[in-house]
Here is the input.
Amino acid sequence: MRRETQKMKTILINLVMLMLVTRSGQALAQTPSFVPPEFEVPTVLENNFFRIRTLTVNDVVKDYDAVMSSVEHLQGVFGPNSTWPEADLTFEQDLIDLGWHQKEFQNRSTFAYTVVSLDEKRVLGCIYINPTNKGDFDAEITMWVRADVVENGYDVLLFKTVSDWVSQTWPFQNPGYPGRITNWEQWLAL
Here is the structure.
């Protein structure tokens, strides 16, 4: 039974990736990179608490668990009008989302990272680095952690880690952190 489940997962992942490449590859290929061509996009950052690495379709099982165990906690993380994640989000929908994020990363049009425990057994959260046309900001950076690690200070730790990483490593002059440094009302009004 477990072998069949793994085989189905592999088939499904390959099918989704094929769909993404054949149906949206042209549109995604035309999306310009929002970082300079000479910038080497980081793929991993690690500290004593977690590892931040490129989000891929291979993370879907643990990502889905993190999202679905934290639905109420995560709603609004992308703004007061955001309904993500819906309570009825399916595994397949999450897989498609992850495939899309992976392809965008490959095209350098946006960058999605998973935050995993050091032993890689759990997804603790995600980070999204996107282009923006808001004010004089040159990037929009959002992130979340699963509900059961908030009390342990992981949300604060993740934000500190990411903001330091972005200021020291990424080429942005004025990254925006909606819902954190800039409240959502101000961000949406830009």
